[in-house]
Amino acid sequence: MYAQLVKSEGTSREEMSPEEIAFQERIDRNEKIEPKEWMPEGYRKTLIRQIGQHAHSEIVGQLPEGNWITRAPTLERKQILLAKVQDEAGHGLYLYCAAETLGVSRDELLERLHSGDMKYSSIFNYPTLTWADMGAVGWLVDGAAIMNQVPLQRTSYGPYSRAMIRICKEESFHQRQGYAIMMKMANGTPAQKKMAQDALNRLWYPSLMMFGPSDKDSVHSAQSMAWKIKMNTNDELRQKFVDQTVPQAEYLGLTVPDPDLKWNEEKGGYDFTEPDWDEFYQVLKGNGPCNKERLGARVKAWEDGAWYREAMTAHAKKKAARRSAVAAE
Ligand code: ACO
């Protein structure tokens, strides 16, 4: 286990303090770390970055689907989509709460999102152009999210791990509703099937990018895995996702847009084409198709809500003043 004792700055075990060694030993015994317990500053910062980014993704992730609520083809589909988008808001809130236990305020996290200092998942910078995209988002995007988040149920930080347990239950409903839409479209009229294929064509590679850069370019994986903040590497999860999803595409009668996709008997998985990493980094820099629109919508929502936050704060202050006046009597 001591092989795992690596610090983010690359210092060796010999350079670790006794607290850091004791902390790593707790991680190695799969003990959960709870909010008020001692933790290295790097562990706290990594969690704030990852949980904050995850929370932002849930919140920004409402936008591409929210865009379709008024245009869902039936009342039932509208109800399902509305429930799903509300779930995503709830996921964002649990995750902001988990981040707050690390000593960061929600206002600060939002400020950092709005200023572009903190990221959200690259996938939400792609547009949702047709109803079939609602199917593909549920099937592929929520499918990729589950692949990443099921192992995070075992992550070392207690509040994050517990939030993940609830979130994963809801995500599996999201994935299934997406696949149900794809089944309907793929088995519908030729125009509907074409729409389903087009959605798969556009969302396949952006979904593969959700797992992050390839392992050789992943900055945080080694330290995050040593601390069991992350349980798998980016490439491991991407491979599992491809292996799980290709048969589902075949069942739909759709073609994964990768001419080099091939089952590799020896490795027991598919060989597949990597996403275009230049595109990925462009999206991260703010140059994706919808970055400005997405961030603009979040900043506008924040500004539009200012009067409500101010009213709630004034009300809370008044109540507190009344309580202390009564207590002083
Ligand atoms: N979108 C945006 N940024 C990304 C993405 C992505 N898909 N993948 C990696 N990055 C960023 C990382 O945040 C990091 O940048 P930073 O140092 O400025 O924060 C950089 O690219 C390098 O990547 P890694 O070193 O591999 O980063 P990390 O170890 O954090 O791994 C991962 C990235 C896999 C996304 C991890 O943070 C994670 O598991 N997060 C929790 C799950 C999550 O956020 N899911 C959102 C999905 S959508 C949803 O659930 C609704």
TrEMBL record:
GO biological process, one term: phenylacetate catabolic process
Record InterPro entries: Aromatic_CoA_ox/epox, Ferritin-like, Ferritin-like_SF, PaaA, PaaA_PaaC
Top-level lineage group: Bacteria
An example Gene Ontology CC term for this record: cytosol
One GO MF term: phenylacetyl-CoA 1,2-epoxidase activity
Pfam hit, one: PaaA_PaaC
Designated name of the protein: Ring-1,2-phenylacetyl-CoA epoxidase subunit PaaA
Species for this entry: Paracoccus isoporae
Lineage: Bacteria, Pseudomonadati, Pseudomonadota, Alphaproteobacteria, Rhodobacterales
